[in-house]
Design goal:
- The structure is a single chain.
- This protein is α/β, with parallel strands linked by helices.
- The protein has one domain.
- The protein is 52% helix and 14% strand.
- It has 12 helices and 9 strands.
- It has helices at residues 2-25, 28-44, 46-58, 66-84, 91-95, 104-112, 127-135, 150-162, 176-187, 221-229, 261-282, 293-299, and strands at 98-100, 117-120, 140-143, 166-168, 192-195, 207-211, 214-218, 233-241, 244-249.
- The strands form 2 sheets. A 7-stranded mixed beta sheet has the order 1-9-8-2-5-3-4, with helices on both faces.
- Helix 8 links the parallel strand 3 (140-143) and strand 4.
- Helix 1 packs across helix 4, helix 2 (28-44) runs antiparallel to helix 4 and helix 10 (221-229) crosses helix 11 (261-282).
- It is globular, with a radius of gyration of 19 Å.
- It starts with a helix and ends in a 5-residue tail after the last helix.
- The mean pLDDT is 89.
Length: 304
C-alpha cells in the first residue's frame, strides 16, 4: 500500500508539472488531448483501480461502473488545472462549467453581516477550482495546509494565481493555536474563508465522527474559530450533472448553546460529518479522497 501511495502521489504531481509545461505553450485543443491520454492510463492502472474497488466495497458501494465514474471526475479535476496553466486561459472558461443554485443567497446573507464566513467542503472532485469559481462572485481566501513537497506547494500557488485568489498558509512549524490564529485574522477582516477539513487526524488530535459506517477523527478547529469570531460555518456541496458542476450551500451549522467549547466544536463537526455521509451515499463518484492513504486505512478498518 505504501508503494502504491508513493506511486500515486508522484504520478499526480509529475502529471501536473509536465502538464503545466505543456499547457503554458499550448491552446485549448492541444491541452484537451491530454484527457484522452489520462483515460487510457487509468484504464490500465490496475493497482489503483483495484485499490479503489476495495475501498468502495468496504464503504458499502458496488464498484462496477463507479470506478470509471470516479476516474472521470478525477481526470476532469486535473484537466481544469491544466487548462488554467494555458497562456491564453480565460477564467470565464472555468466558471461556465459551474452553476450556483438559489442557495447562494445563504452565503450572500451571511457575508453581508460582516463577521466573516467559513465555507467548508469535503475534498470533492474539482475542489481546487471551487475557490476560484466562488471568487468570481464573492472574493474568498483559501486556507491551505503547507505541503511537505515544494513542487506541490508551487502548483498550489500557481492555481491560486490563475484564479486571482488569496491563499494563506500557516507559518512553518506553527503550533495549533498559531494555525488557528491565521484563519481567525482573516475572518475578523470580514472575509470568506474556504477550508476542506475532511482530512483525518490521529485519534488524540481530532473529534470522533462517523462516516459511511466508519469512525474517523476530524479537526474541530473550524468550529473553535467560529465561536471566537462569530463567523457562521456554511457547508458547500457540488455534483456533476449534464456537463456542469451544480453548487449548493447548506444553512449554517448550529452549535449547542451550552456546554464546553470543545464539546460544542465536536458536536458541530459531527453534524457536518452526517451531512457528508448523506452526500456521499448519493454522489460517491465525487469524493476525491477515495484513494487517500488515511481514508484507506479507515475504510478498511486498519487504523491503529
Amino acid at each position: 500500500m505504501k508503494l502504491t501511495r508513493r506511486i500515486r502521489k508522484k504520478l499526480t504531481v509529475d502529471i501536473l508539472r509536465l502538464g503545466q509545461k505543456h499547457a503554458e505553450k499550448g491552446d485549448a485543443k492541444s491541452v484537451e488531448r491530454v484527457r484522452t491520454g489520462l483515460r487510457l492510463f487509468v484504464r490500465a492502472a490496475f493497482p489503483l483501480r483495484q485499490r479503489l474497488r476495495t475501498n468502495l466495497r468496504c464503504a458499502g458501494f458496488e464498484p462496477d461502473g463507479l470506478v470509471d465514474a470516479y476516474y472521470e471526475r478525477a481526470i476532469d479535476q486535473l484537466m481544469q488545472l491544466l487548462h488554467g496553466f494555458r497562456a491564453d486561459f480565460d477564467m470565464a472558461e472555468l466558471v461556465e462549467n459551474f452553476e450556483f443554485d438559489n442557495s447562494f443567497g445563504i452565503l450572500e446573507r451571511a457575508y453581508a453581516k460582516g463577521k466573516g464566513v467559513m465555507v467548508i467542503a469535503p475534498h470533492l472532485c474539482a475542489y481546487p477550482a471551487f475557490g476560484c469559481v466562488l471568487s468570481s462572485c464573492i472574493r474568498c481566501v483559501i486556507y491551505s495546509r503547507r505541503s511537505q513537497g515544494e513542487r506541490k506547494t508551487d502548483i498550489t500557488d500557481a492555481i491560486a494565481k490563475i484564479g486571482n485568489v488569496e491563499l494563506v498558509y500557516p507559518p512553518k512549524g506553527a503550533t495549533k493555536p498559531q494555525r488557528l490564529q491565521v484563519a481567525i485574522d482573516i475572518l475578523r477582516q470580514g472575509k470568506i474563508l474556504f477550508i476542506t477539513p475532511d482530512t483525518p487526524r490521529k485519534p488524540h488530535e481530532g473529534a470522533p465522527v462517523s462516516i459511511l459506517g466508519k469512525t474517523a477523527y476530524f479537526p474541530s478547529g473550524v468550529f473553535i474559530m467560529a465561536m471566537r469570531t462569530g463567523a457562521p460555518v456554511i457547508p458547500a456541496w457540488w455534483h456533476y450533472l449534464d456537463g456542469r458542476y451544480r453548487i449548493r450551500f447548506s444553512e449554517p451549522i448550529q452549535l449547542p448553546e451550552t456546554g464546553k467549547i470543545r464539546d460544542k466544536a465536536e458536536a458541530g463537526m459531527q453534524q457536518w460529518a452526517e451531512q457528508i455521509d448523506t452526500f456521499l451515499r448519493e454522489y460517491p463518484d465525487m469524493w476525491w479522497n477515495w484513494l487517500d492513504k488515511r481514508w484507506t486505512y479507515i475504510l478498511r478498518d486498519e487504523l491503529t
